[in-house]
Amino acid sequence: MRLKNKVALLTGAAAAIKGELMGFGGATAHLFVREGAKVVLTDILDEMGERAAVTLREQGAEAIYLHLDVTSKTDWVHAIDATLDAFGRLDILFNNAGISYPVKVEDLTEEMWDSELAVHAKGAYLGTKTAIPAMRQGGGGTIINTSSVMGIVGSPTSPAYSAAKGAIRTFTKTTALQYAKENIRVNSIHPGYATTPLTQERFSSPEVNKMLLDRTPMGRLGTAEDIANGVLFLASDESSWMTGAELVIDGGMTAQ
Ligand SMILES: NC(=O)c1ccc[n+]([C@@H]2O[C@H](COP(=O)([O-])OP(=O)(O)OC[C@H]3O[C@@H](n4cnc5c(N)ncnc54)[C@H](O)[C@@H]3O)[C@@H](O)[C@H]2O)c1
Q1: Which of helix, strand or coil describes residue 247?
Q2: 112: which residues sit within 8 A by CB, 6+ positions away?
Q3: Do the beta carbons of residue 248 and residue 256 sit within 8 Å?
Q4: Measuring from atom 40 of ligand 1, which residue has the nearest CA?
Q5: Is residue 253 a part of any domain in this protein?
Q6: How far is the CA of 198 from the centre of ligand 1 (A)?
Q7: What tens-digit pLDDT sequence spans the chain (256 residues)?
Q8: Strands 141-146 vs 92-95: parallel, antiparallel or unpaired
Q9: I need a surface site. Which of 13, 95, 150, 183 has the fewest CB within 10 A?
Q10: Measured distance CA(144)–CA(47) in Å, rounded
Q11: 203 Cα nearest atom in ligand 1
């Protein structure tokens, strides 16, 4: 019960159905519930998100699903209001929604660039901005932003993704400094290559799979649960003296 009585909002968390491949948001929602939290799953995949919330409730969890396009300020205001209406407080925000366009710079369109920056960087900014007043009302909180190893080192495949994840990395540190005195902690996680609904198709191609394994010293791809365990630590009071930090979970990739 490491999150007893805490309320958490997770973005990009529709893939949370037991028995199906989960994303980081989905696997994290299950761990949060196991540890006593009430969870608000959000995404733009409404049918899947609603089904996920139903399956969580069937297991006895207090869970709801809300539509939240992280690039929309209106959606954010609605989601935070709805969270407070449903559960009365907000303690944990997991800014996790993501997209990816693996192309070379010359093939990267302005639309791809803008949407990568919008979902990742603007999404984390809007979420943080909207959640902070609700956290302050409850005496503090913890925000975990999903960056990537590609927010630390260059990506061989995805320029806009890497730029957006780098933005999240330093935005996290600045926000951490601004709210440290208010008991609002802000940290980033930096996953390496992991199989999720976002990556499953691309990562299962034999050449891509070989390239990823060659780059990963531990010789296996990550799972959503590998990442969720780190998010749980950052969400819990066990990390109570951590803010502005980077938690790398990558099978050794960035140690090279
Ligand atoms: N899988 C990896 O190897 C890996 C590695 C490093 C970082 N990440 C990051 O982890 C996060 C979660 O990805 P995942 O791999 O668990 O896959 P996932 O498919 O479970 O998560 C991505 C989710 O984001 C949602 N989403 C996309 N655009 C959105 C928007 N505008 N508003 C709200 N939701 C939106 C998608 O519908 C999807 O459910 C992403 O930020 C991703 O970039 C993934």
Answers
A1: strand
A2: 101, 103, 160
A3: no
A4: 98
A5: no
A6: 6
A7: 999 999 999 999 999 999 999 999 999 999 999 999 999 999 999 999 999 999 999 999 999 999 999 999 999 999 999 999 999 999 999 999 999 999 999 999 999 999 999 999 999 999 999 999 999 999 999 999 999 999 999 999 999 999 999 999 999 999 999 999 999 999 999 999 999 999 999 999 999 999 999 999 999 999 999 999 999 999 999 999 999 999 999 999 999 9
A8: parallel
A9: 183
A10: 25
A11: 3
CATH number of the domain enclosing 95: 3.40.50.720
Q: How far apart are CA 216 and CA 246, in angstroms?
A: 19
Sheet containing strand 38-43, edge to edge, reads 63-67, 38-43, 7-10, 92-95, 141-146, 184-191, 246-249
Closest-lying ligand 1 atom to the alpha carbon of residue 15 = 20
Which token pair is 221?
């791809």
Q: What's this model's pTM, rounded to 2 decimal places?
A: 0.99
Domain boundaries, position 58? 7-248
Question: C-alpha angle 35/40/41, rounded to 5°?
Answer: 100
Whether 16 lines ligand 1, by a CB cut-off of 6 Å, is no
Distance in angstroms (rounded) separating the CA atoms of residues 85 and 106: 47
Q: Which residues pair with 64 in a beta bridge?
A: 40
